[in-house]
Amino acid sequence: MNLASLTIDAARSAIQERKITALALAEEHYAKIAEKDGEVGAFLTLCKERALEQADRIDRLSAEGKPLPPLAGVPVAIKDVMSTRGIRTTAGSKSLEKYISPYDCTAVARMEAAGAVILGKTNCDEFAMGSSNENSAFHAVRNPRDLSRVPGGSSGGSAAAVAADMAIAALGSDTGGSIRQPASFCGVVGLMPTYGRVSRYGLIAFASSLDHIGPLTKNVKDAATILRTIAGRDPMDSTSAEVPVPDYVAEFEKPIRGLKLGVAKEYFGEGLDDEVRHAVESAIDKLEGQGCEIVPVSLPHTPYAIPTYYVIATAEASSNLARYDGVRYSFRARGVKSLSEMYRRSRDESFGAEVKRRIMLGTYALSAGYYDAYYLKAQKVRTLLARDFEDTFTRVDAIVTPTSPTAAFRLGEKSDDPLAMYLADIYTVTADLAGIPGISIPCGETKEKLPIGLQILGKHFDESTILRVARGYERSAH
Predict the structure, then answer these.
(1) What's the pLDDT at 420?
(2) Span 260-302+383-477: which CATH code?
(3) Alpha helix (H) ranges present in 164-265?
């Protein structure tokens, strides 16, 4: 069976029709991982025993002629910031190198309940802090499309696993672009749902008011299928919303003729690569050709998004990461002579440079005398950014932008320049700050055959519309 052509529907149908067993499909994916992951580095931990037990359950259902659940037998990968019962969960950090979670993240539990076969945990920037996947404490991930380049971050392992056909789909997390930017760099689909649409229970926190869980897939329908599976209220997460979950798969094929799509001038200014601009403008032309009305719009506070994000996200990271103190379940330094030395050395020896940088920035922003000048002011600007979107969505149904100002950059190219790395998120952080949904879909390639992503942003809890627009473009591009 050609793994490259396998989608969720194709895999599930093949198992239902007994053309292949779920066990055989899982084994084929493990063979692909053995063949390719040595050079890509997408996985940190494999859980073959758990995967084959689940595959066996699916095969027994199929043999008995019983209806199969929506993700039956589909091999998936999970970003290593999501807790998995009995399986190592590291968040890409030395501080959690030996941590075995006693419970499952809600999104993972819902995937398995729907029949998914979890192959393993994917590599990521440490505590999801990064845009290149070079910040992992274990090893960098390489882009399957060009091994000299980054896959994007922080969900680079998940995006690379799907792009290299080592998994049919994967879960990632997005705090400032960490699903959409890797999807763009690796040429796959990446969906960030509305904040509160998917439970964060069991997700290792980076910035609690910004973190989202979402799918990375080979096509738009697979993203809709997984969102339908993992979305919905969860009593274990007080921020998960009591909002009905539509049937995204039933809705996403609706025609897009007549939809109004906003094009914001702030996303097409200085710093946008010419090849990316051309590909995105060509994609917008295709959407217009399908009957969408293209409406020029302005999101005037966009230039302040990066500094706002890096004050709020680092402040929340500083607070969240205080728990890794060497006392309970994280790394503990050896040979210490006092409690204060244990705290200091445990954190110093287990956190990487980027995590330390963000903790220091966040602690400074929250400190006495600077709280009002930085954190409080950033929260006010966040409100203005959210209002920009609210005002714009009174006139348009969705907004289309580039996902990233460039295609995938080379490994090491920006690792010595944190500011240049932070600016790689310039088109994605706004949606996280506003809590709105966004999707990145492939919309072309550079002359060097590197993928380019088109981003579609929507109203709160209106994932259906961005999925429809994404599907409309996908249909026109094939």
Answers:
(1) 83
(2) 3.90.1300.10
(3) 180-186, 220-230, 248-251
Supply the residues annotated as catalytic: 79, 154, 178
Task: In whole angstroms, give the CA distance from residue 178 to residue 159.
Answer: 10
How do residues 14-60 score in pLDDT, each as one tens digit?
999 999 999 999 999 999 999 999 999 999 999 999 999 999 999 99
In one-letter notation, the amino acid at residue 213 is: I
Q: Which of 269, 369, 375, 360 is nearest to 318 (CA)?
A: 360
List of E strands, 288-378: 293-297
CA distances from 167 to 111, 140, 340 (A): 14, 19, 44
Residue whose tokens read 């097409």: 268
Average per-residue pLDDT in the chain?
96
**What confidence tens digit (pLDDT) does each residue in 398-437 have?**
999 999 999 999 999 988 888 888 888 999 999 999 999 9
User: Among the CATH numbers 3.40.50.2300, 3.90.1300.10, 3.10.350.10, 3.20.20.70, which is that of 3-251?
Assistant: 3.90.1300.10
* 3-251 against 260-302+383-477: fold identical: yes
Domain ranges in the chain are 3-251, 260-302+383-477, 307-373
Is 0.90 surpassed by the pTM of this model?
yes
